[in-house]
Design brief:
mainly alpha; 8 helices; about 55% helix
């Protein structure tokens, strides 16, 4: 289902079908793997997140795929990261909105993504972050991703010039 969703979106995301297919096929390659079996002895991430890092390791070191775009799409498909490539965004979105997902608001996210990939992506990031905050189950990279991509979604508060105060800092002389 993630593959089909990614393939439907790859044109609007300006991503090659080949990379979309490989990355979305492999995104959960480590979902049921024990991280210790791959040399991960200190796991510093929540259980739902660690598989993305182990998956990237498997893609690179076990499957010998050297395409950094694919490796990073697997590595950040759960949390995202600042400055994501379109392939990374595509796999992140496809995993979140694929047809078997049925959480409240998923239909709105699907519609938003299919209407405008970039705006829909930002909305997906924002909604996922809100969900994680409610559960008190967030991860540093998810927070960084949300901040990076959703600042533009924050309401703009305009203050009339006469009401605005600008703090004056003392000048230092060297």
């Amino acid at each position: 289902n993630v593959i089909l969703t990614a393939l439907k979106l790859c044109k609007s995301a300006n991503v090659s079908k080949e990379e979309a297919e490989v990355a979305s096929l492999l995104h959960d390659v480590a979902k049921y793997e024990n991280p210790v079996n791959y040399g991960f002895t200190k796991v510093d991430a929540p259980a739902p997140v660690i598989h993305q890092f182990v998956g990237a390791h498997i893609v690179k070191n076990v499957l010998n795929i050297d395409n950094e775009n694919v490796i990073n799409a697997v590595k950040y498909h759960t949390t995202g990261r600042p400055n994501m490539t379109n392939l990374e965004k595509l796999v992140f979105i496809a995993d979140l909105i694929e047809p078997t997902r049925n959480f409240e608001g998923v239909e709105s996210l699907r519609q938003a993504v299919f209407d405008d990939f970039d705006s829909g992506f930002k909305l997906c990031v924002s909604e996922l972050y809100k969900f994680l905050l409610k559960r008190r189950d967030w991860y540093e990279e998810a927070a960084e991703t949300s901040t990076f991509f959703t600042v533009s979604l924050l309401p703009v508060v305009r203050i009339p010039a006469e009401e605005a105060t600008i703090p004056r800092l003392p000048l230092r002389r060297s």
